Amino acid sequence: MQASAEWRTIDFISDLHLAEGTPRTFDAFARYLKNTRADAVFILGDLFEVWVGDDARHEGFEAQCTEVLCEASTRCALGFMVGNRDFLVGADMLKACGVLALADPTVMHAFGERIMLTHGDALCVADVAYQRFRAVVRNPAWRRDFLARPLAERHRLAREVRDESERRKLEQMAGRDADIDFATAVRWMHEAGTTVLIHGHTHRPGTDGLAPGFLRHVLSDWDIDQTSGPPRAEVLRWTAGGLKRLPLAQVAER
Asked: How many Cα atoms sit within 13 Å of 178 on the Cβ side?
């Protein structure tokens, strides 16, 4: 993907897990999109805690999220990559909101650099149970069958899957998702001709090396409602000067 030559600032965020039960995080997201000076904002998955189909966007909390995205897309470019919680966000939703769909992975060209973008869940190859589940729910036949069910039933099934996912996370590493497989990530990067990776999913924000000459930046999850520890939210900003992490409170100031 070639960034527009007019873009001077690109923001990356992920793992906001927006839900009706996290109103402060939702409000922070809405304020961020309204105030950011970025020319483009790329959301690398799990914007929503759950998404049961694009027809859900017409009412309730989903309608509020849709309104925020629609308004923001009139002021800056928006890109969206599905995550493990909102993989059912589809073309209808994105088109209605004026948001660009991003493949996973995507290689972005900007400021004379090439950076690979991914949500990150596909790289967590050691989590065999999740990878099996992922293969099932990403199957087009499963998707068609699920989306054909009544909306209320889809919400119920999604709650059951989410509850099971939370139970499994509590059994793993004090509730934190497994890390990506470094060797697999480096292979992806080598094949794409890039040495820098940006991903989310693991809720372990930071920057470190995957191998000599290969670097990754892990995006922060957002939790202003303090559902699992101190409030946190960061934006990873890309300019001609490089990549820089910004606490959410500083984003509108720069």
From this structure: 18
CB atoms near residue 9 (< 10 Å)? 16
Write out the H or E segment, with its range, that includes residue 234: strand 234-239
The encoded tokens of residue 216 equal 């990754």
pTM (two decimals)? 0.93
Q: Domain containing 231: what range? A: 10-251
Instruction: Give the pLDDT confidence of 17-34 residue by residue, as tens digits.
Output: 999 999 999 999 999 999
Count of Cβ atoms closer than 10 Å to residue 58 Cβ: 11
Asked, for residue 244, whether it belongs to a domain, the answer is yes
Q: What is the pLDDT of residues 182-198, one digit of tens each?
A: 999 999 999 999 999 99
CATH code of residue 158:
3.60.21.10
- Residue 4: inside a domain, yes or no? no
Query: How many domains, the chain?
Result: 1
57: in domain: yes
C-alpha torsion 78→84→90→95, nearest 10:
-10
3-state helix, strand, coil in the chain (%, to 5): 40, 25, 40
Rounded CA-CA distance 14/24 in Å is 16
Cα dihedral: 167, 170, 172, 178 (round 10): 90
- In DSSP notation, 12-45 reads EE----B-TT-HHHHHHHHHHHHH---SEEEEES
